[in-house]
Amino acid sequence: MSDPIEESLLLAPKFDADGLVTCVATDAGSGDLLMVAHMNAEALKRTIESGEAWYFSRSRKSLWRKGESSGHTQRVVEMRVDCDQDAVWIKVDQHGAGACHTGRRSCFHRAVPLGQTGAVSLEFRDAVKAFDPGSVYSKK
Fold this sequence. Notes:
Layout: E1 21-27, E2 33-39, H1 41-50, E3 54-57, E4 62-65, E5 74-81, E6 87-94, E7 110-111, E8 123-124, H2 133-136
Parallel strand pairs: 1-6
Antiparallel strand pairs: 1-2, 3-4, 5-6, 7-8
């Protein structure tokens, strides 16, 4: 028998012990995976209300709107939750050259070669820089 939340239309995200839920962002047009981040309750609320992607930075322990430093914003086209509501998927229109703070369109620009034993070296894939992060992000 399934959990009632799995069939319900009530939004009831299951935040982890740190009060976060994983969020996957993909390009609404191409379907490309752009980034994975986290949302707390406030980031989720602001995303739903504004239609702009908001996240919670675990390293800075603060709320942030995607693009507030870089200008590379994400307009949410569709938001979904998985069956047990412990993950969020947003399809976005990525405005600006890229989603990754390293200057690339996607945060997923390195591949792990399969079938290897021992130490594994990553391979760059679609890793051309779309913008210069040094000129976009400022230290405040």
